[in-house]
Amino acid sequence: MVNTPLPDGQTVTRRLALSLPSLKEIVTECSGASCTVSAKAAGSRNEGDQQGLEQMVSNDIPTALSQSGYTLIEPLQIEETGADETRILLRISIA
């Protein structure tokens, strides 16, 4: 019988915070083999900030997760929570 390691929420939160310091209020909840992660990011309407957010969502977050041994199991979700704030939601598991 092979024991598959289970993800640890504190480890996920710490690794994302170190890899992507622009993410704030990272909350990770794990259940079984997967975790749900919620984080806030600046969501300003100016073009430079929007491009930075798109870069983080399409490349930086998946790369940071992969380098830490995790994989996305659903597409990232982005919710605008205010004029200058965006919430990013993702589900991950150990790769």
Short description:
The chain has 95 residues and is α+β, with helices and mostly antiparallel strands.
How far the N terminus sits from the C terminus, by CA atoms, comes to 19 Å
Q: Nearest-angstrom radius of gyration?
A: 14 Å
The largest sheet is: 5 strands, antiparallel
Order of helices and strands: HEEHEEE
Helices and strands: which structural class?
alpha+beta
Q: What fraction of residues sit in β-strands?
A: 35-45%
Number of helices: 2
Low-confidence stretches: none
| Arithmetic mean pLDDT | 85
**Overall morphology:** elongated
Helix content: 25-40%
DSSP E strands, number: 5
Which structural traits does this protein have?
single chain, 95 residues, alpha+beta, 5-stranded antiparallel β-sheet
Question: In words, what does this structure look like?
Answer:
- 34% of the residues lie in helices and 38% in strands.
- With 95 residues, it is of the alpha+beta class.
- Strands 1, 2, 3, 4 and 5 form a five-stranded antiparallel beta sheet that branches.
- It is elongated, with a radius of gyration of 14 Å.
Write the layout of secondary structure elements.
Blueprint: H1 9-19, E1 24-31, E2 34-42, H2 47-67, E3 70-72, E4 77-82, E5 85-94
Antiparallel strand pairs: 1-2, 2-5, 3-5, 4-5
